[in-house]
């Protein structure tokens, strides 16, 4: 039997979870329900993050965390790709958020997102609290942790944070990061165009992306707040993916989800090329091959495998032979 590319091309330490390319945030009950229904219809081509930080009314944090836990553990979580954002580690509601979510939805949650990480030590504190809660409530699984880099301290320690074995993804928090510069970065630095032009913002994005790739973690790009201007969103998503190396992007409005997925997906031509090269490589037992007078070996085979995985992950229809040869043991990306 021909060797599968996961076995032929990658060492164990190189494996990383293939997270959906879009992470959709919502915190109001009606919008949370709508988002979960949309995910059930479209399939797990995007994650839904139920928000306990910005979604909870002041004074209503306990009830809101309970609501989020109920939704995550309900039949609305059809594909198992629902996470939750808790309050920051130093917020009075952090421990209660974690306890409530883990107790009632620890088996169903795909991850917990921790915002405003100030340092590696704070990231470690958050992970330890989540792991401790999982044990206390009798859960045997390991719950992935995502963190939001939006402070000077978080950016300073980004390499150490990305290296943490329990952290699966790092997101960039544009709005808080710009605000932390006390007006030195103009308001345009938070816009769809300006966030790709200001050197301090670009530096932060690149450092987060590079740190994630160094440790096989998923870099997740920030929001585009002009949520009704989908042309700006598509342009930003393509820049994040094609120029800055991001593998995932936040959505804050349902209309943003499909444009993000489409922008992060490979083109049909790229997918077709990946299929041709990988099928030929497997037939050659992963020895070097020539394709259209260009040499390809294990290094480029790895690249094209990532292209093919991303195509499937974003819902592209693949030929039946490709599905059978490469993905027979993998659940489908679409419902």
């Amino acid at each position: 039997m021909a060797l599968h590319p996961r076995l032929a091309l990658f060492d164990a330490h190189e494996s990383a979870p293939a997270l959906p390319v879009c992470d959709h945030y919502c915190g109001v009950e009606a919008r949370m329900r709508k988002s979960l229904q949309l995910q059930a219809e479209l399939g797990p081509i995007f994650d839904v993050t139920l928000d306990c930080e910005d979604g909870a009314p002041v004074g209503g944090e306990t009830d809101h965390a309970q609501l989020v836990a109920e939704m995550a553990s309900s039949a609305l979580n059809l594909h198992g790709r629902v996470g939750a954002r808790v309050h920051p580690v130093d917020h009075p509601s952090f421990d209660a958020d974690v306890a409530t979510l883990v107790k009632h939805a620890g088996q169903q949650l795909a991850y917990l997102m921790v915002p405003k990480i100030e340092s590696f030590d704070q990231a470690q504190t958050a992970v330890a609290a989540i792991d401790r809660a999982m044990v206390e409530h009798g859960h045997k699984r390991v719950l992935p942790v995502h963190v939001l880099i939006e402070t000077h301290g978080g950016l300073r320690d980004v390499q150490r944070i990305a290296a943490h074995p329990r952290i699966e993804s790092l997101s960039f928090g544009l709005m808080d990061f710009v605000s932390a510069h006390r007006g030195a970065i103009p308001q345009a630095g938070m816009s769809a165009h300006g966030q790709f032009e200001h050197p301090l913002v670009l530096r932060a994005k690149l450092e987060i992306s590079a740190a994630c790739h160094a440790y096989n973690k998923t870099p997740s790009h920030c929001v585009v707040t002009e949520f009704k201007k989908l042309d700006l969103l598509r342009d930003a998503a393509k820049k994040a993916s094609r120029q800055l190396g991001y593998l995932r992007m936040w959505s804050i409005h349902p209309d943003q989800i499909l444009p993000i997925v489409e922008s992060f997906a490979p083109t049909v031509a790229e997918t077709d090329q990946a299929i041709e090269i990988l099928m030929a490589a497997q037939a050659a037992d992963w020895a070097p091959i020539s394709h259209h007078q260009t040499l390809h070996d294990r290094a480029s085979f790895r690249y094209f495998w990532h292209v093919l995985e991303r195509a499937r992950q974003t819902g592209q229809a693949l030929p039946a032979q490709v599905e059978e040869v490469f993905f027979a043991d993998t659940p489908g990306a679409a419902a």
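Strands lie at 22-26, 46-51, 82-85, 112-114, 145-149, 167-172, 218-221, 248-251, 289-291, 294-296. The mean pLDDT is 94.
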